Amino acid sequence: MKPIQKRCAIIQCPRCEYLQLIYLDTKSHRCVFCESTIKMKGSRVKILHISKSPRDASMVLMKLKQEKARSK
């Protein structure tokens, strides 16, 4: 029997633009960097990537953070 895997997403905080990994079934999320509460429905949250496994999403998140650091 396969374990149930939740769908993950990489979002960008609308306030501080920090990239972070969340589960898509959550209603709200607190930003790790600026501690603002991000409501998933009805907000201007920018979803950059959706993945079926947390491992794949974390690899993409790492690449996006590296690209963002190079562009600065």
What is the H/E order? EEEEEH
Total discrete domains: 1
The biggest beta sheet, please? 3 strands, antiparallel
What does the radius of gyration come to? 13 Å
Query: Percent range for helical residues?
Result: 25-40%
Note the beta-strand portion: 25-35%
Whole-number mean pLDDT: 89
Please provide a written account of the structure.
The protein contains one helix and five strands; from the N terminus they run βββββα. With 72 residues, the chain is α+β, with helices and mostly antiparallel strands. It has one domain (8-71). A three-stranded antiparallel sheet has the order 2-1-5, covered by helices on one side. Strands 3-4 form a two-stranded antiparallel sheet.
Short description:
The protein has one helix spanning 54-71, and strands spanning 8-12, 19-23, 28-30, 37-39, 46-51.
Topology:
Elements: E1 8-12, E2 19-23, E3 28-30, E4 37-39, E5 46-51, H1 54-71
Antiparallel strand pairs: 1-2, 1-5, 3-4
Key structural traits:
72 residues, alpha+beta, two-stranded antiparallel sheet, three-stranded antiparallel β-sheet, single chain
